[in-house]
Each structure stands twice: as structure tokens, then as C-alpha cells.
TrEMBL record:
Pfam families per the UniProt record, alphabetical: HSP70
Stretches assigned to coiled coil: 222-252, 478-575
GO molecular function, one term: unfolded protein binding
Keyword Coiled coil assigned: yes
Region of interest called Disordered, as start-end residue ranges on this chain: 581-656
Phylogenetic lineage: Archaea, Methanobacteriati, Methanobacteriota, Stenosarchaea group, Halobacteria
Sequence similarity: Belongs to the heat shock protein 70 family.
Keywords, alphabetical: ATP-binding, Chaperone, Coiled coil, Nucleotide-binding
Protein name listed in UniProt: Chaperone protein DnaK
Composition bias, Gly residues: 583-627
InterPro entries membership: ATPase_NBD (IPR043129), Chaperone_DnaK (IPR012725), Heat_shock_70_CS (IPR018181), HSP70_C_sf (IPR029048), HSP70_peptide-bd_sf (IPR029047), Hsp_70_fam (IPR013126)
Bias (Acidic residues) ranges: 628-656
Stated role: Acts as a chaperone.
Length: 656
């Protein structure tokens, strides 16, 4: 049965979390490994694909085929990961993570899930947002909304508090940094300003430790561990662990035995790192959060004294230097009642509840993080929608041609804050044709921008004289066509079926092996079993072992063979009960009768275990599965209507 619930997903750089509304409150869903967060890691082995904790656990042995921090590449036009000759886009890798989230959530809830709200960093561009939406659709979700992570976190914080307040959300995740300022009150969450750095996160703190360890080791032993993929993976794991330990301790030991070897034998890495040393190595990183924070305050028109509460979001905010820096910047001690790893997913679930009708009296007013506009004469960037504009929104301006008898114009759409268009991010471009020949400055061409609730941009251009128009939804180079999404969805569904079949086979095998072990124990402990029964059990064991080893055998084949063995084990139980009864009738002493009953208890238990496995028994629900700037465009097509006409009122718009 398909649930009408909308899943809230925090698709993180290093870890992801997901939640759903239950009884009016958002609840984190535990994954199939029993954890509240899922590593955003995908690995490929010879015979299967691993996602989450199983992928992370084998990363040292398989670094070449293990993919992490893929979120940092979302929206990159030509970025792919090559595994065994196959190329995967960031959207496809992210979809694999989302598939696991979808499957685990469905197992937890006992229903199919189709709809989701997925969060993104507030400073994500349109291209990155579209890529995230594509990933969700490939995974089989209908993505109801893309919302900003700091906004989601503030919803989790403010759900139980209707007081009017201004909140600063400082979100330092594994790969991105955002800061947002919101006005909260009466169930309204209004984002006033946002800023950030999409290339700053906890991974960078890890790399600082990695580089320090590698440089120390090279100075002592003359070997650069970063050139060895396996050694580098061990350094990554050790650096992450050291970072976490130094959040609660003043010093940590880093020991990596047999990290490499030379002609003289194996070499071990042994280093001590103090929190003071760690903070000195990463002081430049924490300083990179200062300017975006100050810029957000300036854009909002607030002083630090106007901030009522500071929320820390993202696992990286557990580092003491973060709280210290934020308190120094704002003069306000950050709140401690928000779980930095879970707040975003909880907020996404609340937004899902709003969209699904489970949550009333909550209004989310988010903003676009960067200005949107087009290239105009001279290669300048003409803004149509300013940054921090509340969305959804739409704006339009009138432009004109820059040359005589110009019959077409090229609209090049950019996003950013630089004054030269080529210094900003090109989102897309299209042509408007069919303009009647006329002197330069005569045609009136209206360019309109709109941004929907997901932050996705639509651009149109219309020749007001002829009514000719063109429009596109900006998807950028990373956007996928419907056909591509359909194809990738089919591939994802195929993998999902394979994963489910693999899981069922592993569960059946586990039950079968337990039945074999029990059978062997029973035969060893009960020599009085009749030869005929013994031979039948041994034959059933042999058949089951052959079935397990048969790569073509599926879960049903193994379960059937396990059921056969279970029935044979019941014959042992019958004989032992009969023998015990005969002994009692013959006047055997109480001790003998007790012994016989005890022996009978054994096969009774064995029969239960066998039936449990044969009938599909296995791990509990939710815990199953395998471990498991071109010169051509400088003289732009458009020219400013205002300049050409001498119109000073600003209503007619600008050149393009």
C-alpha cells in the first residue's frame, strides 16, 4: 500500500538523515543498520553495490571503487565518476543514496513511499538544485519541494515556539557552509537573508589533518602517503576520527600500524595531536565563515544585537572552535537544544507535513540566494531578481536590439553577484527569432524571470510587437531530460530489485546455515538416533549445502531445502520423545526421564529455528539486508531601452 506521507530528506555531503511526521511530530527514521544517520557513500564490489555504512566499512580495502562527498559535485556540467568502464553522474550516485533511504523508510513504515521533500544548502545555485531534484526522481520519488537546509533547521527549532524572534542559523556540514537569518513568529518562517560557501565543510578540516599527518610522516620516513590510495583512505578515516575525538578531548592519539613498507620493512604511523594544534591548522577555515555571516547580517539590515537566537546545524558545528567563533561574532551563545545532525531532516519532514495537510498554521517564506539576470551590451550583468528575494517570485524588464535590422536576440541567463556576466554562473541560453527588421532600439522585447517554490528558474522573452515568444526552464548542463530521467529511473528500479533479491537470498542463507549447524549438533549429541533418520538428516544437510553453493539458486530454493531439513529434524524430535516415553514406562528413574526430556527439548528448538528460516524468518524489520567569457557575446544582442529612448522613469527596463 502506498502511504500518503511525505518523507523529509537531508541529503548530506558526508551523512544523510530522513524523517516523517508521526502523530503531529517529526520523527527520525532509523535505517536498516539501526542508525539515525546514513553515510553518503556508495561503493562497487565485484558482485554488488553497497550504500551507506557497508560502503564506508570497506572503503580502506576498496578505495578506487568507493565514492564519497559526491554532493560537492552536484550540478557540475561534465563531472562523472568512472567505475569499471561505466560513467556515473553525481545525480546517479546521489540517486543510489536516495534509493537506500527510500527502501529503508518503506521497511520502517511498512508502506510504499512516493513523495519527498529534499533539502539543499541555501547557497546552492539553480543548477545544483535541479540536479538534486533529478536525483530524487531517478530514485523513484516525486519531489514535492526543494527547501534550504537552514530554513528546515529553523522549522525544527521553532515548531513548539510561537514567540516572535530573529534567528541566525549557522550551518556547517560536511561539504558546504550556509548562514541564514530568519524572522519567526506565529507559525511564519521568513528568510530575510542568506549567504554561504559551497566549497567549505567538515571535509576541509579532515584534509587539514591528513596533510599534517602526511607531511610529518614524509619528513621522518621520506614517503608521501597521499600517493597510495589505500594509505590515503586510512588517513581519511583516522583524520575524521581524530576530529571527532578532539571535539570532546584536549588530545588524541593517531596510530596506523603497517601504513606502508620499504625495503627495510613495514612502517607504522604514530602521532599525537592536541586540540590547540588542530585549531591552529584550521584557523583559516573557520575564518572563511566570518565574511558570509557578516554579509548576511548586512543584507538583512540587522546588527548582531538584533539576533535573538543562534542555531548550529551540521555535524561539523560540534567542533568547539565553531561555537566559540559564532559567539564571538554574534555575542550570543548558540542554542544547545537542536541536534545538529537531525534538525534539517526533521524540518524537511515538517515541510512535508505542511504540504501533505498534516501540519497547519505553518508558512515558509524562503529566498533566492543569488541574483538572477541576463547579459547586456558590453558584457554586463543586468539583474532582474535580486538576491534574498522571497520566493516564489517573478520579475520582468523591457529590452531592445543593439543593431539595425536585427531579427533575433540571444538571451544568456546568469546567476551571481559579479558585475560582468562572464564572472557569474551561466545557467542557460536561448534565442528569440522572428523579430521584424527595424532600426536599433525600436523593437520592444520583454524578458521575464520566475522562480518557483523549489528555487527552479523559468525565463521567457517576448517581442511585444509581434507576440513572438520563447521560454525555458533553466536546467543548465546538469539538468536531465524527461527521457534521461525515465531511463535512469528504470535502471535504478532494476538495481532495487536486484538488491532486494540479494537481501532475500542472504537472509535465506543465514537461516539455512543456522539450521545446518543445529542439525550437526543434534546428531553429535544424540548417538541413539536411528540410522535411517540420521542418513535422511545428513542427506538433507548435504542437499542444503549444495543449494547454498549453487549460484543459480534463489532465496526460494534455499528456503525449500531448509524446510526439508527442518522436517527431518522433527523426526529426530519424535524419536527422542518416543524413547523417553518408553524409558519412563519401563520404570526408569526420575533422572533418566529428565534427561530424555532434555534431549527432546533440543530438537524442538531446532525445528523452530528451521521453520523460522524456511518460512522467511530473518532479521527484524528495519535491520535486515546485506552489509548490506567569449568575445562573441561581449557586444550583446540587446541594448538598454532607457538609454536609447532617453526615458528616465526606469519603467521601460534595461539593455540586453
Amino acid at each position: 500500500m502506498t502511504s500518503n506521507k511525505i518523507l523529509g530528506i537531508d541529503l548530506g555531503t558526508t551523512n544523510s538523515a530522513f524523517a516523517v511526521m508521526e502523530g503531529g511530530d517529526p520523527e527520525i527514521i532509523v535505517n536498516s543498520e539501526g542508525d539515525r544517520t546514513t553515510p553518503s557513500i556508495v561503493a562497487f564490489t565485484d558482485d554488488e553495490r553497497l550504500v551507506g555504512k557497508p560502503a564506508k566499512n570497506q572503503a580502506i580495502q576498496n578505495p578506487e571503487k568507493t565514492i564519497s562527498s559526491i554532493k560537492r559535485h552536484m550540478g557540475e556540467e561534465d563531472y562523472t565518476v568512472e567505475i569499471e568502464g561505466e560513467e556515473y553522474t553525481p545525480e546517479e550516485i546521489s540517486a543510489m543514496i536516495l534509493q537506500k533511504i527510500k527502501r529503508d523508510a518503506e521497511e520502517y513504515l511498512g508502506d510504499d513511499l512516493e513523495r519527498a521533500v529534499i533539502t539543499v544548502p541555501a547557497y546552492f545555485s539553480d543548477r545544483q538544485r535541479q540536479a538534486t531534484k533529478d536525483a530524487g526522481e531517478i530514485a523513484g520519488f516525486e519531489v514535492e519541494r526543494i527547501i534550504n537546509e537552514p530554513t528546515a533547521a529553523s522549522m525544527a527549532y521553532g515548531l513548539e515556539d510561537d514567540a516572535d524572534q530573529t534567528v541566525l542559523v549557522y550551518d556547517l556540514g560536511g561539504g558546504t557552509f550556509d548562514v541564514s537569518i530568519l524572522d519567526l513568529g506565529g507559525g511564519v518562517y521568513e528568510v530575510v537573508a542568506t549567504n554561504g560557501d559551497n566549497d567549505l565543510g567538515g571535509d576541509d578540516w579532515d584534509h587539514a589533518i591528513i596533510d599534517w599527518l602526511a607531511e610529518q610522516f614524509e619528513a621522518e620516513h621520506g614517503v608521501d602517503l597521499r600517493e597510495d590510495r589505500q594509505a590515503l583512505q586510512r588517513l581519511k578515516d583516522a583524520a575524521e576520527e581524530a576530529k571527532i575525538e578532539l571535539s570532546s578531548r584536549k588530545e588524541t592519539e593517531i596510530n596506523l600500524p603497517f601504513i606502508t613498507a620499504t625495503d627495510d620493512g613495514p612502517i607504522h604511523l604514530e602521532e599525537s595531536m592536541t586540540r590547540a594544534k588542530f585549531e591552529s591548522l584550521t584557523s583559516d577555515l573557520i575564518e572563511r565563515t566570518v565574511e558570509p555571516t557578516e554579509q548576511a547580517l548586512e543584507d538583512a539590515g540587522y546588527d548582531k544585537g538584533d539576533i535573538d537566537e543562534v542555531l548550529l546545524v551540521g555535524g561539523s558545528t560540534r567542533m568547539p572552535q565553531v561555537a566559540d567563533k559564532v559567539e564571538e561574532l554574534i555575542g550570543e551563545e548558540p542554542q544547545k537544544n537542536v541536534n545538529p545532525d537531525e534538525a534539517v531532516a526533521l524540518g524537511a519532514a515538517i515541510q512535508g507535513g505542511v504540504l501533505g495537510g498534516e501540519v497547519d498554521d505553518v508558512v515558509l517564506l524562503d529566498v533566492t540566494p543569488l541574483s538572477l539576470g541576463i547579459e547586456v551590451k558590453g558584457g554586463l550583468f543586468e539583474r532582474l531578481i535580486e538576491k534574498n528575494t522571497t520566493i516564489p517570485t517573478e520579475e520582468s524588464k523591457v529590452f531592445t536590439t543593439a543593431a539595425d535590422n536585427q531579427t533575433s536576440v540571444q538571451v544568456r541567463v546568469f546567476q551571481g553577484e559579479r558585475e560582468l556576466a562572464e564572472k557569474n554562473e551561466l545557467l542557460g541560453e536561448f534565442h528569440l527569432t522572428g523579430i521584424p527588421p527595424a532600426p536599433a532600439g525600436t523593437p520592444q522585447i520583454e524578458v521575464g524571470f520566475s522562480i518557483d517554490e523549489n528555487g527552479i528558474v523559468n525565463v521567457s522573452a517576448e517581442d511585444k510587437g509581434t507576440g513572438t515568444s520563447e521560454e525555458i526552464t533553466i536546467e543548465g548542463g546538469a539538468g536531465l531530460s524527461d527521457d534521461e530521467i525515465d531511463r535512469l529511473q528504470e535502471e535504478a528500479e532494476e538495481h532495487a530489485e536486484e538488491d532486494q533479491q540479494r537481501r532475500e537470498r542472504i537472509e535465506a542463507r543465514n537461516s539455512a546455515e543456522a539450521a545446518i549447524q543445529r542439525a550437526e549438533t543434534l546428531l553429535e549429541e544424540n548417538e541413539e538416533v536411528d540410522d535411517e533418520i540420521r542418513e535422511s538428516v545428513e542427506s538433507a544437510v548435504e542437499d542444503l549445502e549444495e543449494t547454498i553453493d549453487d549460484e543459480d539458486a534463489d532465496a526460494e530454493d534455499i528456503e525449500a531445502a531448509t524446510e526439508t531439513l527442518s522436517k527431518e529434524l522433527q523426526e529426530i524430535g519424535k524419536q527422542l520423545y518416543q524413547d523417553a516415553g518408553a524409558g519412563a514406562a519401563g520404570g526408569a528413574g526420575p533422572g533418566a526421564g529428565a534427561a530424555g526430556a532434555g534431549a527432546a527439548g533440543g530438537p524442538g528448538a531446532a525445528g523452530g529455528a528451521g521453520m523460522g528460516g524456511g518460512m522467511g524468518g530473518g532479521p527484524n524489520p528495519g535491520a535486515g539486508g546485506p552489509d548490506a567569457g567569449d568575445d562573441e557575446y561581449v557586444d550583446a544582442d540587446f541594448e538598454d531601452v532607457e538609454d536609447e529612448s532617453g526615458d528616465d522613469d526606469g519603467d521601460d527596463g534595461d539593455d540586453s
